[in-house]
Amino acid sequence: MGQLFSTHSSSRGAKIAVVGAGAVGATIAYACQIHGVAHTIALYDTNAAKVRAQVLDLRHGSMFAPPMTIVGGTDIAVCADADVVVIAAGAKQKPGQSRMALAEANVALCRAVVPRLLRVAPDAILLPVTNPVDVVTQAILTLTGLPAHRVVGSGTVLDSSRLRMLISERAGVGAPSVRAYIAGEHGDSAVALWSGASIGSVPVTGWTTDGVPVFTPEVRAGIADSVTNAAYEVIKGKGATNYAVGLAVAYIIGAIVGDQRLILPVSTLVPDFHGISGVCMSLPRLVDRAGAGAPVAVPLADEELAQLRLSADRIRAACGELGL
Questions:
Q1: 304-322, pLDDT tens digit by residue?
Q2: Is 229 annotated as a binding residue?
Q3: Which parts of the sequence bind NAD(+) (predicted)?
Q4: In terms of Cα–Cα distance, which of 160, 171, 255 is closest to 209?
Q5: What domains appear along the chain, each with residue ranges and CATH number?
């Protein structure tokens, strides 16, 4: 897999703006700082004391990270001319609460903030992280009229990392040796795409230990369930997920500003995928400096496609309730 956050020559002059200086937004900025993803990181938040504290805390570690400028404030102008704007502000998911329950409040926040962001950063790629991320991504597209490739929801990139971790632990290999994706909703109807999953060049479904299949249907179902419920477990234990999502979003940002042309399961409008269209959901796509491309062809079992259609229906229904 190579270096995860390799520095591309075009990324060093990039500016990243993060809207929301809470646990998720600040951790995204921290991950970007550690890995030298950009030249400038800007934090925007309406809480003056918090955003100042977060910026100071990040700056205090400057000697231990690649050189960059870190700024922040309560004036949205701090986001001016950003190449990528991460939207991480919004209501937090509470223990036992589904991501979809956050839809109304967080879509309303986007209606208020996104037009102002585009006035100061008109050419930015928008990267919503706020949940429910598929609904929020669709709301931003509807609100702005931007082309789909410029609104790139974080989608199931983190879910796919969780899936790869669990597969790697079961198989006894390093996670970078695993290729596997979660698709559909970043939420309860997410779909594990086992048909295209592999360890090295070996299909996951064909992986054996001493001639005995490791990933039986029961094992695969258990892993998929663990992925779907992972956030609930973390939120129950510590109140929020932030470290893994921070790394995942920094990885997406690196793919964009570094023009890395990675295949990532990000969320944006589906033009037509096996009859699914007109809804934002995660599918493996090429991610580069232009943003997110069209879904790539991936192997799909009939059952997986049926589950993806149900996932799309769930997202579409939530969007419909909000008039999107």
A1: 999 999 999 999 999 999 9
A2: no
A3: 20-25, 45, 106, 129-131
A4: 171
A5: 9-150 (3.40.50.720), 157-321 (3.90.110.10)
